[in-house]
Specification:
Pfam family, one: CTP_transf_like
GO molecular function: ATP binding; pantetheine-phosphate adenylyltransferase activity
Shape: globular
Helix content: 40-55%
Structural class: alpha/beta
CATH superfamily: HUPs
Number of domains: 1
CATH architecture: 3-Layer(aba) Sandwich
Oligomer: single chain
Strand order of the largest sheet: 3-2-1-4-5
Distance between the termini: 43 Å
Pathway: Cofactor biosynthesis; coenzyme A biosynthesis; CoA from (R)-pantothenate: step 4/5
Cofactor: Mg(2+)
Largest sheet: 5 strands, parallel
Order of helices and strands: EHEHEHEHEHH
Radius of gyration: 15 Å
Strand content: 15-25%
Subunit structure: Homohexamer.
Amino acid sequence: MRTAIFVGSFDPFTVGHDSIVRRALPLFDRLVIGVGVNVDKHYMWPADERVAAIRRRYAAEKAIEVKTYDDLTVDFARREGARFVVRGVRSVKDFEYERDMADANRALGGLETILLYAEPELAYVSSSLMRELERFGKGENLPRPSQREGALSEDKTEKD
């Protein structure tokens, strides 16, 4: 079974992330979305809410699992039996960072990195931009996963 992980903080999960998941899914038998938790970071949404939103988004996809992790990516991959990590790249800056991480992941755990380039119309979308727009009430101005299913901002609005 070919297993890959797709990891990030996903705070929030964006249409760009969704695009990477949809394009990676046919390449693997199993795709584990790892929601990273770093005690030194401050998140807009708690990990359990991020996981729940992503699980709702892919509830019909039997090949997708969503889990949290708070250690090294290579250790998470090893626990999940994954030999590949899928990463999205929007720019040269992203590429340089991902190349360095790919080298480290390969050296530390034999983990191979599969890079998928952002769709041109989504290259500007980022979680940090989404958070900034949400803070100022402009989150609806960015593209969302289709029908905003599982969108964290929608969940947050319902709780307010």
